[in-house]
Amino acid sequence: xxxxxxxxxxxxxxxxxxxxxxxxxxxxxxxxxxxxxxxxxxxxxxxxxxxxxxxxxxxxxxxxxxxxxxxxxxxxxxxxxxxxxxxxxxxxxxxxxxxxxxxxxxxxxxxxxxxxxxxxxxxxxxxxxxxxxxxxxxxxxxxxxxxxxxxxxxxxxxxxxxxxxxxxxxxxxxxxxxxxxxxxxxxxxxxxxxxxxxxxxxxxxxxxxxxxxxxxxxxxxxxxxxxxxxxxx
Length: 233
Prior knowledge:
This protein is an alpha/beta fold.
């Protein structure tokens, strides 16, 4: 049966999925990387598709922006549709001088300003870490493809404008700031499924460089290739 946010019937979503924040990026991935892609969702304009990649059944679906939004979709995908591998493919801002525009960042762990996790664990900090098997595969796939890739801590912020100075955490080795990975990682450990975040650097808080919205939607194909190859590896 459909959920409040996903109109798919059981069996229409594969057990492995890419999760871009932008639903139009989901459409781009389906049209350019998947064969025989069929749309399974358009509720609230959050596009989702299932097709095949190198003969393997794979889905892709937008999640919107922020931990609350990705948590709704990931929860329903995991608990109602049986998805076992979830990889976020999104954008991030560099807070590290060694991490440049269009580089890939694989989030080994995600610090967060969100209280969504502290609500469940008020007495201590629960670390949000990626699934190591997916991380290891993604890193080696990216390196084999010759893609400049960084692995390390990221910051999942609740705020796009304002909030704590992300550049300060950059001094402690954090690679980039984004808005979703910590929530996805938390659901992964909570439901014993595999989750990973692969981000393309769309702008740099260090240098002030940035990319356009069209570039972010249509040209960040390295993370799409690495994500898809990781799902089927």
